[in-house]
Design goal:
Jelly Rolls, 11 strands, single chain, 46% strand, 0% helix, mainly beta, four-stranded antiparallel sheet
Length: 123
């Protein structure tokens, strides 16, 4: 990779295509990071069981997804049908998953019985 020369008045900014996630570095070397903010959230209580349930549909506008379990062993899968042998995250009772990268669908299945999870989607 080639070196980049900056003048004292130069600033380098790297941003995503929407311009919402930004990293700026000034000529003096000071860095700042801008993350997207939101004032819109939807909270949903989702009933769960040993049958896989979609707890969040794919959403290209999602900034964050927060899942809080209340009981049991919960298997969560990103972009697939969750099972005890096919999962992304395994959460026990009273655990929280805080996801800010995944925009696809999310499913959940329990190891036994029925229960509920709280799902907060921030857009």
């Amino acid at each position: 990779m080639a070196d980049v020369s900056l003048t004292e008045s130069s600033e380098v900014t790297i941003a995503d295509s929407a311009g919402t996630n930004k990293l700026a570095v000034s000529a003096s070397g000071a860095a700042s990071v801008a993350f997207p903010k939101s004032s819109s959230a939807t909270i949903t209580r989702v009933a769960t069981s040993t049958a896989a349930t979609t707890i969040a549909a794919a959403n290209a506008n999602r900034k964050r997804l927060i899942v809080t379990t209340e009981s049991g062993v919960n298997y969560i899968a990103y972009g697939a049908t969750a099972s005890s042998t096919n999962y992304t995250v395994n959460l026990g009772a009273n655990a929280t998953l805080d996801e800010d990268m995944w925009l696809g669908s999310v499913s959940l299945t329990r190891s036994t019985g029925t229960g509920s999870v709280q799902v907060t989607e921030i857009v």
